[in-house]
């Protein structure tokens, strides 16, 4: 008999032996946990699979490389080409993917049908109170939780089959297996309970069990839908397993038959050919070496590298980091592992006070989470107290402090003061975090700055200054990003988990499910929409970086712009870059607006559903009014963290793109480092010995070949040769900008690789061809070589470099600002400042790279005399193109195409009549021709002055002068013309000879310095 609304009948129990009660328990518990178990399995499985499959993208080096401050850093590895194969599970084609999508869609539609059947049956029933409060088997809370949760879960699975480009994987297989097991349990329990008349599915006063209609129309619909779902889930599992078995069998057959793959080498199982073998036929008939065997060999002998001179003719990767045009398709694990490199620089491990600050901040964050939970609960208490006070007043009682909820209001006010980022707890946390944040920023930026200085010359030769500066400026972005993760993202996730738990404990699984479904779909939609615009954001970031680079390059090249009157061109180029950035920025902003609209719709849909359900329960008397306010307050309070996640996800993308540059910069390692057993050089006499040194910037084009020579202490060695012969490369090896690939360089009999880099460089002074100065005073630049030097020592060094008197003529003398890179000084002045700095350093070895090339003849001779005086007792290495400046050298080494072709003193090399003698003769003839040409031009100018007027009287003075000089002077046109022609002819012949020899040398060498 149907009960009325006020007195609902007690729930009907099963038979006496209790089997239906056990079946009912199994049915209800399975319905409660079915969707939750599948969701947890899918999320954890997907996370595990992304971590496992991430190893396919790159080789993971052990973090044995030390970064700034001795922190471990992994070596950067380039991505392997993705061959489309998976480590676990088969690969599916388009047809197979569509079949999986069709079967998954049917499973989802069956749950839509179950939802329609359940709600149709519930609202068709004439006693809403009963199924609302008491719960019937077909409309109870457990059934609603199961049907709605499963509907949304299988909808997400269906979406994933479209999102994941490789189709279903092992995670889907695990979910389908668990889903099939759950459907079998639900179908069996429903059938057993129905056959035992455990379901009273009557809409009339008639008892269903007495009418013999235990398995009624609605039960049959449920059983049919259970069967259809189980059948399609079985089909999904079978199709996946068959494809997997087929892949395993096909792979085994290919291995047995020895089929080649795309990675199989074409020539003798080796992809590395020497110069001698790549153009010659091979007579080796051995089969290609299997891939696994090659991998084992390369792994077991990681240091097995070929000599450069005979190495593989492959192009070396650039040393400077690249700038990707799109956002790299990396997994969350790859990003987390990459950003974990920054953690050692951010944690204040050396300051106990800051560590205490950080721990207190973490404690305040936890306390803030508890306050967030207490506020909605206290709002419910205030509403319930007000409702009780209203009833008391309506019943005629007077309103007093006893029945007014003043205490609840006081507690609520205190919680409001503590709540929020701007509340008392949040403000205290921000205050304590200030020194920690500053310490993190200081540690990260200084580490990046020091790391750039620690990188080798190959990086700095190929870098773009604007790009490096842009990467260094990302330290604040990384610091802010990690701070947001610590104090906003992690607390947000904790708030979501805590709210779901509170809903489950206080208000039942239905509200917990509403909150969970709404949160999951909000996050999924946010991530999906943001990831689809990742390339747009990357395009905007690249455009911004390009704008900064153009601005930096243009301003730093101020004089060049003025030389060519290119102001309008530079302005147009900069405007184009700004327009490109703004176009990309507009696309990103429009995408953000659309995302905000979708986020608002999804969140408010869940909030409306929860408010309606709770309102219904309040209306039928199941809950109090305060419960409705509590639930709505909880959901409204969650809007803040969820909205922040939408904003933060965009911030995460921006931080990942920005920090990616700094991350890649951190992962670049110097190519020249101290070996573990390196020792300081200590006392050094100045003896240098090169033993068969070979080196190449590009393995296809060696720069040095078997270079050998020896310099005794206190001697002068000059290096000459055509451009590209290897002179500057030799100097770079002396200063240990590079390490040789073959041979050895010894200082006092010790290999430089066994000495620390800093100690070697402390004994070497360099005067480069192009001197760069800091934008500071002259005194600062001079003392840069020796900060402990006194002013008097600086004056003496400048006097030795013939620059002291010149500096005293400046208005500010030694405090004169030299400008950017020393542009306020002339080339000769900068060169003399560089020589003075080298004198202040007082090294045992002085290297002069055409140090006087920017000076006039008189100053050059003066400085040369001073340098020879200063160089007494020191080893001098000189690069010179003016052979007349190195005639006094103890030995002259002639380099050609990276090889030592001649060696000896000036007189010995002239007597040998080789390349040096040819260069000397060429320079002498060119100088004679130039002198003769200058003399002829002077005589021609005199004659033109003499014959410029048509009257004799106008030239009396010139004629008399010519007569006094005698007949040997150039007073006639024929003699002047003859001298000019003779001078030009000698110059032309010398130039032809020079061009012929240089062309022949270039053909043989093909290298550049």
From TrEMBL:
<dbReference type="InterPro" id="IPR003439">
    <property type="entry name" value="ABC_transporter-like_ATP-bd"/>
</dbReference>
<feature type="domain" description="ABC transporter">
    <location>
        <begin position="688"/>
        <end position="922"/>
    </location>
</feature>
<dbReference type="InterPro" id="IPR039421">
    <property type="entry name" value="Type_1_exporter"/>
</dbReference>
<feature type="region of interest" description="Disordered">
    <location>
        <begin position="61"/>
        <end position="89"/>
    </location>
</feature>
<keyword id="KW-0809">Transit peptide</keyword>
<dbReference type="InterPro" id="IPR027417">
    <property type="entry name" value="P-loop_NTPase"/>
</dbReference>
<feature type="compositionally biased region" description="Polar residues">
    <location>
        <begin position="946"/>
        <end position="955"/>
    </location>
</feature>
<comment type="similarity">
    <text>Belongs to the ABC transporter superfamily. ABCB family. Heavy Metal importer (TC 3.A.1.210) subfamily.</text>
</comment>
<dbReference type="Pfam" id="PF00005">
    <property type="entry name" value="ABC_tran"/>
</dbReference>
<keyword id="KW-0812">Transmembrane</keyword>
<keyword id="KW-0067">ATP-binding</keyword>
<feature type="region of interest" description="Disordered">
    <location>
        <begin position="260"/>
        <end position="321"/>
    </location>
</feature>
<feature type="domain" description="ABC transmembrane type-1">
    <location>
        <begin position="359"/>
        <end position="654"/>
    </location>
</feature>
<keyword id="KW-1133">Transmembrane helix</keyword>
<dbReference type="GO" id="GO:0000041">
    <property type="term" value="P:transition metal ion transport"/>
</dbReference>
<dbReference type="GO" id="GO:0016887">
    <property type="term" value="F:ATP hydrolysis activity"/>
</dbReference>
<feature type="transmembrane region" description="Helical">
    <location>
        <begin position="223"/>
        <end position="246"/>
    </location>
</feature>
<protein>
    <recommendedName>
        <fullName>Heavy metal tolerance protein</fullName>
    </recommendedName>
</protein>
<dbReference type="Pfam" id="PF00664">
    <property type="entry name" value="ABC_membrane"/>
</dbReference>
<dbReference type="InterPro" id="IPR003593">
    <property type="entry name" value="AAA+_ATPase"/>
</dbReference>
<feature type="compositionally biased region" description="Basic and acidic residues">
    <location>
        <begin position="931"/>
        <end position="944"/>
    </location>
</feature>
<dbReference type="InterPro" id="IPR011527">
    <property type="entry name" value="ABC1_TM_dom"/>
</dbReference>
<dbReference type="InterPro" id="IPR036640">
    <property type="entry name" value="ABC1_TM_sf"/>
</dbReference>
<keyword id="KW-0813">Transport</keyword>
<feature type="transmembrane region" description="Helical">
    <location>
        <begin position="173"/>
        <end position="194"/>
    </location>
</feature>
<feature type="transmembrane region" description="Helical">
    <location>
        <begin position="99"/>
        <end position="123"/>
    </location>
</feature>
<dbReference type="GO" id="GO:0140359">
    <property type="term" value="F:ABC-type transporter activity"/>
</dbReference>
<dbReference type="GO" id="GO:0005524">
    <property type="term" value="F:ATP binding"/>
</dbReference>
<feature type="compositionally biased region" description="Basic and acidic residues">
    <location>
        <begin position="981"/>
        <end position="990"/>
    </location>
</feature>
<feature type="transmembrane region" description="Helical">
    <location>
        <begin position="32"/>
        <end position="52"/>
    </location>
</feature>
<keyword id="KW-0472">Membrane</keyword>
<feature type="region of interest" description="Disordered">
    <location>
        <begin position="931"/>
        <end position="1009"/>
    </location>
</feature>
<dbReference type="InterPro" id="IPR017871">
    <property type="entry name" value="ABC_transporter-like_CS"/>
</dbReference>
<feature type="compositionally biased region" description="Low complexity">
    <location>
        <begin position="967"/>
        <end position="980"/>
    </location>
</feature>
<feature type="compositionally biased region" description="Polar residues">
    <location>
        <begin position="261"/>
        <end position="281"/>
    </location>
</feature>
<keyword id="KW-0547">Nucleotide-binding</keyword>
<dbReference type="GO" id="GO:0005774">
    <property type="term" value="C:vacuolar membrane"/>
</dbReference>
<feature type="transmembrane region" description="Helical">
    <location>
        <begin position="143"/>
        <end position="161"/>
    </location>
</feature>
<feature type="region of interest" description="Disordered">
    <location>
        <begin position="1"/>
        <end position="20"/>
    </location>
</feature>
